[in-house]
Amino acid sequence: MGHAEPITAGDIVTAPASDFLRDAWAGLDRPEKSINPKWLYDQAGSALFEQITTLPEYYLTRTEISILQRHADDLAQLVPTGGTLVELGSGASVKTRTLLDAGRHLSAYVPIDISAAFLNLTADDLRARYPDLSVRPIVGDFLQPVALPDDMASRPKVGFFPGSTIGNITPANAVDLLSRARAWPGMEAFILGVDLVKAPGVLVDAYDDAAGVTAQFITNVLVRMNAELGADFNIADFSYQASWNAQDARIEMSLISGKAQTVDLAGRQISFAEGESIDVSMSRKYTVDSLTQLAQASGWTVRQMHCDDAKQFAVAVLTPM
After folding, report:
1. pLDDT in tens, 204-244
2. Which residues on neighbouring strands pair with residue 27, listed in sequence order?
3. What three-state secondary structure class fits 93?
4. Looking at the chain, which runs of residues are DSSP E strands?
5. Whole-angstrom Cα distance, residue 181 to residue 320?
6. 72 within 8 A of 191, measured Cβ to Cβ
7. Domain residue limits at 293
8. N or C: which end of the chain has fewer CB within 10 A?
9. Domains held by the chain: number
10. How crowded is residue 91: how many other Cβ atoms within 10 Å of its Cβ?
11. 31 inside domain
């Protein structure tokens, strides 16, 4: 995953420390060490991500918002009168308001998110903003099957998955996710935010900003392990690295051990060689061809791609095959 908006602001992971420890042990015991990127998002991590979205190098958020604003009317009209907008990983639903403002004909909005407390606060806020709209939040992990309310089975629906979060998911999981959405009854279309392949320098800068905020964001997972799991990582012994993997068309975000060392993680000794990396996050970028292949593998076809003038980002409209 990564900070191409894998979990939106406020979507703070509050799972028991035992889950965090189990994940950390499993990831760091592998020959190629890794940490599940969901653990980046404690309160400090979420605040850092909010800073990232405002940085000059990080074009993704502002570019997607500009596309949504430019095409709000057309996108909202994808939902038939009386239909439902279903959003995966809704977070604060800030981008969604652009569609809801243009789609006063919608009867319902179903935000799906993993953070129950934050989801319910957001739902209450939206009910106040849109008193004629039925807001029906669902607490759930969109990477797993999610059942929609029974009374919505017969309503026409449009899915919404902004933020280029699809790039934070492995290709196989992306196919599974889009296939499950395609199987929901009454699906008319799916609105998908995707970041596009572009000059490697632009991509690396977006994930390794000059102010060092992204480095602090990624390193925060070590800070969390020290504070919550009793690990003894020396933060200064690890450096952040963002690199472009052209073969897999993705940015890879890692922490590199500056020396041979052993870290204690709740009684388990984790050895690092000098230069050994911990893979923390990745963000895949798409082309028209690779997005078309993903859509077709999931039972969709790419009907439209709304892009900014610089062709950095796209809001794609998928329709059932």
Report:
1. 999 999 999 999 999 999 999 999 999 999 999 999 999 99
2. none
3. coil
4. 84-88, 108-113, 134-135, 138-139, 157-161, 187-195, 238-245, 250-257, 261-265, 268-272, 277-284, 300-307, 313-320
5. 10
6. no
7. 1-233+284-321
8. C
9. 1
10. 25
11. yes
| DSSP string computed for 124-144 | HHHHHH-TTSEE--EE--TTS
Asked if residue 129 is part of any domain, the answer here is: yes
In this prediction, residue 17 has a pLDDT band, given cuts at 50, 70 and 90, of low
Residues 303 and 78 sit within 8 Å (Cβ to Cβ): no
We report the CATH number of the domain holding residue 219 as 3.40.50.150
Examine residue 76 and state whether it is found in any structural domain, yes or no.
Answer: yes
> Which residues lie across from 307 on neighbouring strands?
314
pTM: 0.87
The 10s digit of each residue's pLDDT in 75-117 is: 999 999 999 999 998 877 889 999 999 999 999 999 998 778 7
In a domain, 243, yes or no: no
DSSP letters for 3-41: SSSSS-TT------HHHHHHHHHHHHTSSS-B--GGGG-
Q: Which of 316, 59, 33 is nearest to 166 (CA)?
A: 316
Tokens of 33: 């060490």
Q: 63 is written with which tokens?
A: 């570019």
The encoded tokens of residue 193 equal 């935010």
- Residue 226 CB burial class (10 angstroms; 0-12, 13-18, ≥19): middle
Q: State the distance between the two ends of the chain, measured CA to CA, in whole angstroms.
A: 28
- Six token digits for residue 213: 């905020």
CB 313, CB 164: distance < 8 Å: yes
